[in-house]
Write a structure and sequence with these properties.
By secondary structure, the protein is mostly helical. The chain folds into two domains: about 50 residues; about 80 residues, no CATH class. It contains seven helices and three strands. A three-stranded antiparallel β-sheet has the order 1-3-2. About 20% of the residues are buried.
């Protein structure tokens, strides 16, 4: 089955909202009415979060860093931060968090996000974006990525 190239990829947040609506509908069919907010919180709980707001915030933050045009084949993915740290230590690059995983991105990856490898905020943030050295610089970096995406 092929997908049209013009079709926008559904975000993880949208996928989880659909799951919450299906859960709500399923329970309703069994005479167990719940509000959508309760269904969203249940989905958040199943994903290890206290509530939907916390899950949504984390997903929005990490979705920002995934450049779907780069594709997973050009990034090095890791299930633990330690594995990503080892790769970055030995090969260079940046540790980027994505949901519960991490990947290593290089200067080309940064360019695909609109970030120059000599950016002053990048130097303040450091190589580990899952634990930035400077929180304010990290926020500015995120805003630069958003602005770059909005230009496209």
């Amino acid at each position: 089955m092929s997908t049209s190239p013009s079709r926008k990829t559904m975000s993880r947040i949208d996928e989880l909202k659909i799951r919450a609506k299906k859960l709500q509908k399923s329970l309703s069919a069994n005479n167990k009415e719940i509000k959508l907010k309760e269904a969203l919180n249940k989905i958040a709980s199943l994903n290890g979060f206290t509530n939907w707001r916390d899950l949504k915030h984390k997903l929005e933050e990490t979705e920002l860093f995934l450049n779907r045009a780069t594709g997973p084949s050009t990034l090095h993915w890791y299930s633990t931060q330690e594995e990503a740290r080892y790769f970055v230590k030995t090969h260079g690059g940046y540790i980027i968090p994505y949901q519960t995983d991490f990947f290593a991105g290089d200067d080309d990856y940064l360019a695909s996000l609109g970030i120059d490898k000599n950016d002053a905020d990048l130097k303040l943030v450091g190589q580990d974006w899952s634990e930035p050295n400077d929180a304010e610089a990290f926020k500015r970096l995120q805003n630069k990525i958003r602005a770059f995406r909005d230009q496209k």
